[in-house]
Amino acid sequence: MAVPGRLFAALGENVASVQSDQVHMQASLKTIQAATHVVHELRSPNGSVVREYVSPAGTVFAVAWQGPWLPDMRRLLGSHFDEYERAMQAQNGGRVGRRPIRVELPGLVVQTTGHPRAFAGHAFVPEMMPQGVKAEDIR
Amino acid sequence: MNRARVFLILGMCGLAMLAVGCGGGSSAKSNTVVTPSSGQNVAAVAVNGGPLGNYANGLFVSVTVCVPARSTCQTIPNVLVDTGSTGLRILGSALTISLTQQNGTGGQPIAECLPFLSGFTWGPVQSADIQIAGEKASAVPIQVISEATFAVPNGCKSFGVQGMDTLDTLGANGLLGVGLFAQDCGPACAQSGAANPGLYYACPSSGCQVTAEALGQQVQNPVAMFASDNNGVIIELPAVSGAEVSLSGSLVFGIGTQSNNSMGGATVYTVDQFGNITTNYKGQAYSQSFLDSGSNGYFFLDSSTSGIPDCGTGANGFYCPASTDNLSATNSGANGASGTVNFSVGNALSLFTQNDSVFEDLGGPGMNAFDWGLPFFYGRNVFTAIEGKSTPGGTGPYWAY
Q: Do B197 and A113 touch (CB under 8 A)?
């Protein structure tokens, strides 16, 4: 049974939320063991893949996504979503143009690339990344 | 070949060098010669600052929309030409005529949320006759971008990007998506249940709910609905050295359907099911790469892997090398075709201090992929073939250049 308030896996939350996330996405779950962490890979029926990177202490320190459309960022970023939105708004102004998303804050990095029918991105909390894990490993 | 033109390019390069350093990489850039096109299948396009004058590397065209089967028409200027998406989207605030609302099987009006990297477009799906140059398509489902008609649903806000329903946020009066696909969403949106990505909504007065939208009702690639010249487009723009105020070129409809749209020596790069090719750069393969006239620079990797510094404040999302970086990559299609691309990345902060809108060497971070934006199109004829359509280069979808 799902624990109230733990319905969604999100960046910075505990691994206990990942199983609930599987229910939300109606996804299939695969677990991949790495040297410094565990990756929970969720595949949903609409072709989207979300990978949640979990530390030995059970904390989701990074998430990556790939699919035809953008994921539910509010759910993936959890308590970080509001600062992410504020940072996006703060980038307005100057030259107009269409380009990938890059938000880099002291406690949060979010990048997204792609186009309609093929998006990919990742988010992580830099100080929570295990030693030796680099941004480009989160994919 | 053309000695006078070579001297002209060198001359301009020298002038540009005084201000920002000369962009390299253009020498080996083109394998097809750009020649001015004319004909009923050719629309004039321009790269300039757009309707607000602050767009960088924006490619604009005029599109005429009409109430279906009526002579009530409006020509909308400054519509961004986007090979990275599919379908015509017009700002509701730019429309002075009332198009025909599309209703679902239950009679409720249909609306759509389409996510892009730069923001989402939300608003009703309506039907219009479309004319561009001498080409016409009847009763085309398009999107009217408006957050005032129906409230933006939470599912749309959860994409984590902002709404682009004003001239300020869109930077254009609309988007003309002339990409690889015939519909903007495709079969997934026609399904019910968990496999539906939730882009189309039925909007009774009680509020909008996700709905299944049949393929033919979805927002369509207008080119695929033209009576002829409907298998794809060519974007033809001259080469640029450094930065310029504006640039003129052609959006040509049809591939190998007329004397003015043959493929010449262009190489076909077929795409995967998502519309991507592979770019190889410094020994790494990036399989989620793509060509996109709607992206305004070369976007690739991030600062730590490319070694090129980010600009930060003043030019967020762009690279700012101390001096122009001349780089090389290899694109390969799913069909095994491959070719080298030389490109340059200059200092965006320096570029933006000038009163220019056309930048040959504008670049920025783009994660583990190469987004070949509008600068890639300068000095190349780039063909975009629509899925399922027959062309002299094979059946779409593919890119060729």
A: no
